[in-house]
Amino acid sequence: MCDRPRMPSSDRAAERAREQEHALNALLAERDGLLSVLDRVLALRGTASLIRDAAGADAGFVADLDGPAQAVIRWIAGNRTDSLQDLAVPVGQGVGGRVLAVGQPVRVSDYVTSSSITHHFDGMVRREAMSAMLAVPVLAERDGRVETVAVAYAALRGPGEFGDDAVGAVQAVAREAARALRLADRAEAGRSTAVAAERQRMQASLHDSVGAMLFSIGAQVRDLRTTVPDNPVLSTRLGRLESDVSAASLALRESLLALAESSPERALPVELAEHCRSFEARTGVPARLVQLGEVEPLDAERTALLIGAVREGLLNAEKHAGAATVVVSLGMVDGGVQVAVADDGSPADGGAADPADGSGLGIRMLVERAARLDGRVSLVHDEDGGTTLRMLLPVPR
Prior knowledge:
One of its GO terms (molecular function) is phosphorelay sensor kinase activity. The chain is an alpha+beta fold. The protein is built from 10 helices and 12 strands.
């Protein structure tokens, strides 16, 4: 039996360097791909060209949903005129409107003579000299239902028709477009949460600084007025100053109320983002919030309980875990809203733990409160280290 030749150490080092470079390049490519779809416009702008190329068509275009019963053609590749740009397509009208109605691909061999569609848009189609046309829905799952969120079109000029291969190719592009839209929606939710959290910090800062300053000035003016009762001129000027301070305080309160305005569905992620920020500032451990799609608005009791679960999870990570990173996630799961606090702290006994058995008082109280709302709490220790606390509360119907 002969031994396998051993690779020189320099060659092994070079091989490892190549592997690391390949991994880095892959990560950079993935990052660039994600960044390119973090905006809804960017996510769909390039889709029109992809549709045209995938179907072997002369033109491709995409209509974005504008309300539940209408789509608007926003992005076009291969057009000759602007007749289709920003064209509103109500449900049931033309090829795209029929797709909105049935949720299935629709194709015609000659648009202006087809008997299977309405002809509200024949003039626009004629100006583009289009004949055969295909439209497929861009589908996304929302609240457990599959819905059409956009419509992808392909069109030919001159003789020809779209076969099954073309339908499959456009559907494949539509699936990628749906994935890009999901990422864009999540990014938008994250941006909205960040903006709302910043508004909350500005509100607190203005209240603590400018508000306190105006209160102090007002108190001093009132004190001066009592010390100079025999000086009517100065008393009058101080009275005006007191009125100005009162008006400024009122304007500040109105501004603080405006900064505090937030839709109910934003209240929960804003609070969670603020707790992550406070945890990171307090401990120096990076903590970030990941929102996995839109979350239905909740009543005050459920919102407070989910916030309490995140606060408890962060407290445990701070006291016990010795974590390098903490991730808080929020999303809809099994018809309910779930929060999770995951850290990569010190190794612990593997497996799922009963959070009501042997856990701290805070966890046991969360279990009891969640149970009263038909919710559940789990505490899982990973074999390789780290702990994840989850709470799931059903959404009342």
